[in-house]
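Weekly modeling sync, notes
Attendees: S.R. (lead), two postdocs, one rotation student

Agenda item 3: backlog of single-chain predictions. S.R. asked that every request posted to the team notebook include the full sequence so nobody has to chase files. The rotation student volunteered to paste the first one in as an example of the format we agreed on. Action items at the bottom.

Example entry:
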Amino acid sequence: MFSGRKILRRSLGVLAAFFSILVGFRSGSVAAADGGKEAFVGIEERLGEKIPMDLILRDEKGEPISLSSLFAGKPVLLELVYYECPGICTPFLQSTAELLEEVPAVPGKDFTAVAVSISPSETAAVAARKKREIFGGMRRAVSRDGWRFLTGETEPVRRLAEAVGFRYRENGSGFLHTTALIVLSPGGKITRYIYGKNFLAADLQLALVEASEGRVGPTVARVLRYCFNYDPTGDRYVLDVKKVAGAAVSLGGLFLLGTLLLTGRREEKRPRRRQTSGADGEIDGNEEGREK
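Predicted structure, as returned to the notebook:
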């Protein structure tokens, strides 16, 4: 049987080995990110944080417009895209258009939808053309001020993307990026991220109600998204083996540590055999010494 000290030493050894393996998985994941944080493409959620409201962008006519003026006491539905994107941006904007047709809340009255180009080379004319294209396919009349298509210089767009955790990088003449609807409270607080291509009106309606009250809502399927990484080249999510393995090692290590500690406590509570040595009747607790 193990003594209490032996159990403790073994537990500490297991814990140290567990953290070593975990750090190894973490290091491998970072190294595989092709340069680390700067090379990451996807969303790093910033729920509860605020965006910089002093940013100046350009509207569809090329006129300066402050980000704060788009709120006017209402929630904002933010989309970061680029209008000449040959891939996922147009289908994403079309899905957003369908969502705006179905949601009970009225764009321009109850909230404002705002698309912002991540490409500093895109002009207001490009944004206006994309807006006419998207609006032309809509069945429900939406106020022109209810869904804005904006552009901006490199720095304000970069700051906005950084604030909401939207990470992208240039790829030739375009960009590698993902898509998401980002719901902001009237004060500019990030309250919800909505992912996917086919959105539910009920999800957006609930998110807008929460945002209007300043309440942060949990993102659906957070655990599943932890296990998957977005592959912008294939426009799909792929299993992140390192994250899954790291999580398995973590759970296994904690389970083993808990088992050893529980065994040690039970052993300490078990009554020990009393032995006497010599005529004076002293108790000898060194059982190993007597066996020798």
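Discussion: group reviewed the output briefly. The chain has eight helices and 15 strands.
Action items: rotation student to repeat for the remaining queue; S.R. to check formatting next week.
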